[in-house]
């Protein structure tokens, strides 16, 4: 797999384009989270310019919404696994 380009116009996340054999991948990174979408090479997807054209505003908005959902899922998971302690139970050593 090799990097064939980036989408610098998007500043709130990193967007990287990859090529591997007869497939393209577009990876979105936002902090600790990432999403990767894979496509077969074919009509309408044969170079970086055409791949960049796939990443339109509605698609970016959907990716951002998915990142928000991922953050909410992890926050919920952590709060279930590590619930906040009641302040009255805190032990202070003097």
Q: What strand line-up does the widest sheet have?
A: 1-2-3-4
Strand content: 25-35%
Described by the principal axes of the CA atoms, the overall outline is elongated
Radius of gyration (CA) equals: 20 Å
How many domains in all? 1
Structural class: alpha+beta
Distance between the termini: 58 Å
- Could you name the ranges where pLDDT drops below 50 across 5 or more consecutive residues? none
Can you offer a commentary on this structure?
The protein is elongated, with a radius of gyration of 20 Å. 34% of the residues lie in helices and 30% in strands. It has 94 residues and is α+β, with helices and mostly antiparallel strands. The chain has 2 helices and 4 strands; from the N terminus they run E-E-E-E-H-H. It has one domain (2-82). A hairpin with a 2-residue loop joins strand 3 (23-30) and strand 4 (33-40). Strands 1-2-3-4 form a 4-stranded antiparallel beta sheet, covered by helices on one side. The protein has helices at 48-54, 57-81; strands spanning 2-6, 14-20, 23-30, 33-40.
């Amino acid at each position: 797999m090799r990097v064939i380009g980036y989408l610098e116009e998007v500043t709130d996340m990193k967007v990287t384009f990859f090529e591997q054999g007869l497939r393209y991948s577009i990876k979105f990174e936002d902090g600790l989270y990432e999403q990767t979408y894979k496509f077969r090479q074919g009509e309408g997807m044969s170079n970086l310019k055409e791949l960049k054209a796939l990443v339109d505003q509605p698609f970016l908005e959907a990716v951002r919404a998915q990142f928000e959902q991922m953050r909410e899922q992890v926050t919920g998971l952590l709060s279930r696994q590590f619930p906040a302690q009641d302040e009255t139970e805190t032990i202070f050593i003097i």
